[in-house]
Amino acid sequence: MTRLAIDAMGGDFAPNEIIKGTIMALSKTSNLEVILYGNRNIIDVLLKENINNNFFKNITKKIKIIHTDNFLSMDVQNLREQLRIKSDASMFLALKDANDNKVDGVISAGPSQALVLACHLFIKKFDFMKRIAFSPIYNSFDNKTRILLDAGANIDLKPENLLSFAICATVIAKELLDIKNPEIKLLNIGSESSKGRSLELETYKLLSQEKKINFCGNEEPQNLLTTTADILLSDGFTANIALKTYKGAINNLSKAFKKILTDGFWVKIISKLFFHKRIQNMKKKIDPNEVGGAMILGLKKIVIKAHGSSSAYAFCKAILQGKKLIEADVIYKTSKYFNDNNKLNVIDTN
Amino acid sequence: MTRLAIDAMGGDFAPNEIIKGTIMALSKTSNLEVILYGNRNIIDVLLKENINNNFFKNITKKIKIIHTDNFLSMDVQNLREQLRIKSDASMFLALKDANDNKVDGVISAGPSQALVLACHLFIKKFDFMKRIAFSPIYNSFDNKTRILLDAGANIDLKPENLLSFAICATVIAKELLDIKNPEIKLLNIGSESSKGRSLELETYKLLSQEKKINFCGNEEPQNLLTTTADILLSDGFTANIALKTYKGAINNLSKAFKKILTDGFWVKIISKLFFHKRIQNMKKKIDPNEVGGAMILGLKKIVIKAHGSSSAYAFCKAILQGKKLIEADVIYKTSKYFNDNNKLNVIDTN
């Protein structure tokens, strides 16, 4: 039985969509128990509203609630202050219980940076890890799912951090995406090994020498959606720049196309008739809600960051992703990987 | 009379499109003379082919040719080697003549990195400048034209380099884009002044203190196409990542939309009837060929890098852009700006 801690109060549409998503997940899978962290009164009302037939009633047995009045707002800035004045915030309690082995993992749609920092503080890391990585998975028009890391947890990284991230992500890609020998590439401004800053030059060397990962060279960011790589490595600043640029470009071009397809009465009708369904299908292919949440890698517990704007469906996906990772025993497999590789080819780059 | 040096052999479609573009520019404007650097025989044939009526015949008087057998291929890697074995390559000769005041500026569609490096070697910089910046201008759906720099000349920069770039770009935005008080923003992963690496934190401080520029804070890259800024500042690595991500996202989404609009016989006919013209108009809005070339800023000469894939039309635009910058006397105005600001608020960040 997998036990997951759910931060019921984190997310733009919490607790409503979080509770709905949790019920959805429990109805779709067996061997799962959840603990909801948040305001018991509100959660109870939402559970009653959404569990209204006999089929769903079994689900209530699989749900526990741990009450707390406090939670982090989505625009939280000063985490240290929050730790002082809201030490019992729903996210913090969930993480603490994970570290105390009361649950196997945590799912939260709360504020990303706060979650990353709180993980740092509350959950043990692998001995080999000096940093933890924020690792979204994303899908593309080619129906391939890829992992990007670090997407924002660390703005300054060393080559050895990126090597340890590569190892964690390799295990995840094997177990979550069912890829035998995951291909890793380094995000860079050119494909040649001589391209990039000293970070990229040194990381390229280090990754090339490590035989337990499948490093396949540099990848330029115009190929983010088409790369043969299963895992794209980068420092948090660069990956964040790339992700945000991507988001902006897609949004702006989509808006421009939408205007073309809806500008005028007849045009609107024709678009609806001929293109509506096709466009919905295409949008679905790159919809981040379709692939679950971002993982926080390097920790000795599974922590999934669902999108802040998670719908019930998206949050349900994040829960199922967490369950899959726990059932596949990725924490044990990652630690085994590190232990079996005590002498990883780490070059001292200092 | 403005005299421009044209690298006739640089570009994916050189010399054909370069010669055509030059003729186009000469037919559209007066007070312009050009010197074509390249293979005289080939250029002569192309000139004859394209100047075949009396109206165009006047144009020949405004064209000189400086013969050389050598030029840089578009995939040139080792510039130092090229300098040794092809010291008379068309691009090098054009730049040397600019530095010797034989011409007022240079237009080349040759390989970008080689052009930047060759500018470094052959053309004097402003005393204040320690680096030069690669500065494309780009347009957007909102019909606003913006300058991005540094887009790849320097992968490592200091805050004071970015300040000097901000000053050069301010003069360009005033004179080329006719903007009274150009707004400058710093590309960053967050809008707050506390966001980013030490480069962004220190640059933010430095730019805030300089009263002769209109610094308006950080800009996140999802707003690349919608920012109120006229000038976006960044280091060459980051800007290159953003530009390439943008290019990839637009290409991939455009392909996906194209598939939707052309998949099937009737769909194709309907798309052609209702949407073809609108889509062409939208594409034109973000077509880099519409805005001229990238400028290489910090030099005491105007150097324009036209797109490698320049059509005649795009190359003509780059020539007219160069002419406008020369006629507006931006080199003098920039040097005056630096001289009038001998005590720029440069903080020693070392």
Automatic annotation (TrEMBL), chains A, B:
Protein source organism: Phytoplasma mali (strain AT)
Main location: cytoplasm
Protein purpose: Catalyzes the reversible formation of acyl-phosphate (acyl-PO(4)) from acyl-[acyl-carrier-protein] (acyl-ACP). This enzyme utilizes acyl-ACP as fatty acyl donor, but not acyl-CoA.
Keywords of the record: Cytoplasm, Lipid biosynthesis, Lipid metabolism, Phospholipid biosynthesis, Phospholipid metabolism, Transferase
Catalytic activity: a fatty acyl-[ACP] + phosphate = an acyl phosphate + holo-[ACP]
EC number, as in UniProt: 2.3.1.274
Major enzyme class: transferase
GO biological process annotation, one example: phospholipid biosynthetic process
Family: Belongs to the PlsX family.
Molecular function GO terms recorded: phosphate:acyl-[acyl carrier protein] acyltransferase activity
Record GO cellular component, one term: cytoplasm
Assembly and interaction partners: Homodimer. Probably interacts with PlsY.
Protein name: Phosphate acyltransferase
InterPro entries: FA_synthesis, Phospholipid_synth_PlsX-like
Pathway: Lipid metabolism; phospholipid metabolism
Transferase recorded as keyword: yes
Source taxon at top rank: Bacteria
Lineage, top ranks: Bacteria, Bacillati, Mycoplasmatota, Mollicutes, Acholeplasmatales
UniProt subcellular location: Cytoplasm
